[in-house]
Amino acid sequence: MFPFDIFLCIRDDHDLKLVVLAAAVCLLTSLTAVLLIRQADQEDAKAAHRFILAGGFATGFGIWATHFIAMLGYDPGVISGFQIRLTAASLVMVLISMISAFLIASKWRRPPGLAAAAFIAGIGVAAMHYVGMMSLEMPALIQWSAPYILLSLMLGTVPLFPAFSLAFRRRTRASGLGAALIMSASVVGLHFSGMAAIKLIPWSVGTDDALFSPHIMSVMVSGVTLGLLTLAMIAWLVSRRTKAAIEASERRFSILAKGISDCALYMLDRDGRIANWNAGAQRLKGYAEREVLGTHFARFYTPAALSDHRPQKALGIALERGKFSGEGWRVRKDGSRFWAHVTIERIDTETGAHVGFAKITRDMTRFKEDQDRIEQTRHQLDTALEHMHQGLCLFDAEERIVLRNRRFVELWNLPEDACPPGTPLMEVARVTLAARLGGDVPEERLLNIRKQLQLALSDPDAPPAISEFGDEFVVAIASRSLPGGGWVSTFEDITERRRSEAKIAHMALHDGLTGLPNRTSFNRWLDVEIEHAGGRAQQVAVVAIDLDRFKEINDAQGHAAGDEVLQKIAASLAEMAGDGEAVARLGGDEFAAAKLLEHPGDLADFVARVNACFAAPAAAQDGFALGASLGIAVYPGDATTREVLLNNADLAMYRAKSTLGEHICYYEPGMDEKARERRQLANDLRQAIPRNEFRVLYQPQHSLKTKEVSGYEALLRWDHPRRGTVSPLDFIPIAEENGEIMRLGEWVLRSACAEAASWPHPWKVAVNLSPVQLHQHDLPEMVTRILVETGLSPRRLELEITETAIIADKTKALHSLRRIKALGVSVAMDDFGTGYSSLDTLHSFPFDKIKIDKSFLLQSQSSGQARAIIRAVLALGRSLDIPVLAEGVETEEHLALLIGEGCAEGQGFLFGAPELPPPAAAGTAIKPDNKRSNGS
After folding, report:
1. One domain for residues 488 and 519
2. What global pTM score does this model have?
C-alpha cells in the first residue's frame, strides 16, 4: 500500500532529523514566497515584478535545498556522491519552473491562470526531483515503480492550485499560512513518494565524472538554507515596515476624513476596496461604514459605467499618473442618482511603495443641472444660428465682429476661417466684396456700405439694402442696433426670389407655349400707344388673326403637331414685327398684331407683312396648307377705345372667315349689329329652360301600306317673350356653339320619353340628336338614365342622327351608337342623301331606318334628278333590308310617288302638322293637311 511503503521508506532509509530539517526548510521557503507575493501587491508595477521574481527564485532554491537535505538523509548504504552537471541542471529546472509559475499566477489570477501556474510548478519540481535522483552515484542499479511516479506527480501538482489561490487571491494571515503549508506538503509528498518509487539492485560500476561528495553537498545545502533564512527575515521586516506605514497613513487619513462632512472622503486599498468611511460619505451615499468596508468602490457606479469598466480605468490612471479626476453619474443606496466630481489620488509610502488610494467625491448635481441648462441654451442658439437660411453677423460698439454664423461665409464664398471675432467692420466689407467682385474693391463702394449701415441703424423701419452682383448674386442686408451699442446684420440671398419674380412677371405677360406677349401684355401696349397716338393725332391699327383649318391638324395629327405649328407661326410673327409694332397670341389659334401708323401707306404694308407670315412654309404642316383670316380695325376712325377697337377687329375677322374667297377684311360700320343680336340670343337661350319657354311638338309618322300611325317625331319650338316663335334653324347652331345644346338635348329627350310613356298606344317617339350630343362621352348612360326615370320601353325610342354628326369623329360616334343600340333603342339616319359618305356610313353601322331629306320630295314635281335620287334611295333600302321614311309629304302627288316606288313610311303636313299636346287618341287614317311647315 502507498502510505505504508512511504512510511517505511522514511523510517528505514532516511535520517529523521534531516527529514524534519528538510520539511522545515520547505515550510520556511513557502512562507517566504507568500510574504514576497503579498509585498508585491503593495508595490508599483516595476517593484512588484521584482518581488515576484524574488519569490520564484527563493521558492526554487528552497525546494532544491529541501530535496537535497532529504537526499543527504537518505542512506541506503551505497551512495558515493552527486554528479555536478545533473545536480546543477536540477537547480536550473526548478528555478525556471517556479519563476515562470509565479509570473503567470501574478498576471492571470483567475482559475485557468492559477491552474496553469500550478501545473508548470509541479512539473518543474518533479523534474528537479528525478534529475536529482539521477545525479546520485552509487554501485547499484535503480529500478522505478510507475505507480509511485504517477503518485508523486499528482502530489506535486494538484495541491499547488489551492496553494496559489490562497497566496495570490487572499490577503489574510490564515490564508498565507495555509498556502505555505499546502505548498510544503506538496513538495514533501512529491519527494517521499518519489523516493518510495526506487529499488536498488547492487551493481559494481565506475565513473570518471566529477562528483559532489556528501560533505560538499551538505555545505552547499547549508549555504542555501542560510540564504533562505536571511531572505525570509528581510521579507518579514519589509512586510512589518510596510504594514506599519499603512497603518500610520490610515490613522492620519482617518483623523482627516472623519472631520470632513461636506464631501465623501475615504481610503481604498490597492485593489479598490474601501478601507475607511467618513461622515460625508455616509451622508452623500447613504451607506453606513459597516456596510461598505472591504467592498469594492465600483458598487457606486451605474450599470453603463460598469459595462465600460470605468472603475478599473480610473484606478489605472491614478496608479499610472498619480491622480485621476472625472465626473459622472453615481448611485446612492436608495437607487437615486447624483452627478459626482471624483478625485482619486495614489498613496505611496516614504520609500515609494504603493499602498492604496485616497478618493474624494463631491455632489455636483445642482451645478450639473445649471451647466446643462446653459449648455442646452447655448446649443439651441448655436443650432439656430447654424441652420438659419440667412447669414448673420453681430458687431460690438467698436465696430468689431463678435460672432458670425456659417451661412454668412457660405453666402459670400469665403473660407471657413474668414472674418473671425475681432475683425473690424470695414475689413469684413472689403473681404466679402472682394470675394464676390473677384478683385480690388473701390473705396467709394466701401463708403457707400457705411452710409447704408448708418441709415439702417438710424431708422428701424428702413427696408433692407439690396446689393446686386450681376444676375448671379443678389443679397438683401438688414441691420438693427442693439442696446448698449453694437448692432446685428442679416444677409439674405434673394437671387432665386428675383429670378422667380422676373419669371412670374414674364409668365404673366407672355404666352407659355409660344413665348409671345399674351392678351394682357397686348392690351397694355395698346393702351399706351392709343394714349400717345391721341396726343399726336396718329393712328393705331389692330389686326385680329384666326387660323383656318387648324382643327384639322389637331384632329388628324394630334395636339403636339398643332403646338408645333403655333410655335412656328409665333416665331414668324415675332421676326416680322419691328419698331412700333406688336404681336401677341390671344389664346387657342387666335393671334393679334398692332402698329402705330405714322404714314397713310403704313397700314397696307403692315397687313401684307402679317399675311405673308401665313403664306410661308412655316404655316404648312405635313400636307396641311394653313391659312388665316385677318380682320383690321383702326383707331380712331373705327373705334375710340381699346375694347371697341379689339371688338371691331374681331368682327371684321369673323366676316373674313365666313365670306367665301376672302381672308382679309376691314371693319365697316354695321358689322356688329348681327353679332350683337346673336350674342343676345345666346344669352336668352341660357334662361329659356328655367323660364319654361320651350315646348315639344309631335308630328305623326304613317305607314304607307296600312295608313296607320307608326310613331311621332318630337320637334322643339322656342316661344321667345319678345321675338315670338324662334326657329330651330336660328337657335340650334347657337346652342351648339356655346355648349347649351347638352342641357337642351337632355331636356328634350326626357320630355319626349315622359310624354310617350303616357300614350295609350305603344307608338314610337323619334328624337333628333345634335352632332355635339353624339360626341358626349356619357351619352349611352344618359339615355339609360332617362328611360329608367320615365319608364319608357327602349323599343319605343328612336334616335335620329345626321351623317355629318358621324363624320366628325366616326370611331367614337359609332361606338356610342352601338352601345345605345344594345339597349334596344332604334337608330335612324336623318337627312339621308345630303351628306358626303352615305354608303360608307350605312356599311359601317346597321341603321334601323333611313329618312329621305324632304328637299328631294319637295323638288320631285319639277326635277327628274330628285325623283331619280328618291328611287335610288328606296332601292338601296330594299337591298339592305332597311325601312325608308320620306319627309316632306305635303301633296297627294308626293304620296302617289312614294307608294308607287314602294316607300314604307311617310311624314309631312299631308298627314298632320306638329301638335301640342300630342294626339293621345289620334285616329289611324291619313288626314291630308295642306298647311306647310315653317321649320321642323
Report:
1. no
2. 0.40
